[in-house]
Amino acid sequence: MNIKLLQLLDGAEDKYPHALEQKFPHVFTKIMELWGLPAIDQYFIDLMLHTRAVPREGFPPDAAKEILDLSLLNDEQTKAKQGARISQ
Asked: What is the value of pTM for the model shown?
């Protein structure tokens, strides 16, 4: 379990992306490397949309949901840093 991510989730282990970390460790590692950097937005887009010439299989629903949840968390944190109001 990644301590940095767990802290970003305020210790909520039920929100931790276990499936992503176990089934797609290279994706999980890349997300953690890019966290807080502008490049992470494009990485999330590339993960969730078909952007390659060669079709890929896609993620199983549990991992896809975790990627989406991490993307939303990143958006919330980015808006909070910019002083924008976060919708609830």
From this structure: 0.83
